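Pasting as-is:
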Amino acid sequence: MGQKLTPVAFDIETSGFEIDAVVTVIGIVLPLGCRVLLNTDQRAVAQPTVVSALAERFDTTVKLSCHQTERGLLEAFTEFTAVSLTPKEYLLVAYNGERFRSGFDLPFLRTRYTLQGVQWPFVDVPYADLMPIFQHRFNTQVGDESAADLTQVYETIVGDGLTALDPFADSKQAVDAFDAGDFEKLLQHNIADILRTAALASIAEQYCSKSDFKLKSLTPTVSDSSLS
């Protein structure tokens, strides 16, 4: 990293893993708090009540926007990044968002943005994945196994109780919550994940060199503004 970039952690929730599954939540941690976008799938949500409960639970500022469809969520996220990410000296980080030959969040988003015909959100925003850093630059061995996923690594390296605020033990429960319209718990899960990711990014900054952050550009070769 040349100039000092401020890490901003992001994570998505989905209705499943197959190609026709949709994005249900996109969350991102900015210096002033959490920005979360929710796909309600045409269902009602008591937004002020949910925001108040989330802010109290996590002791942080939470800004929530609700969108009736996945397309509406994706369009809103593209607008948000153009205003709040691209002009800033931010480094987008995720845990297993996209790595060499693998990852989840970014490949999933590319497919859904393509199928919905919405303009890609990440233009002039550098990206680094935290998973390789903690796999290769930290000892996460516990007993006979090495911690691998976000929750395990967070508990091993940080372990300050944030995981206790996550109502779900696995991603399948987040899928079930979306299906049932239990949006508050779904959002709790997402916020817990992005705050865990942000905490790991802070640790990596303090104990790893700049060269350990394998930065890549997410800017597409051709940007077609007519899509949106």
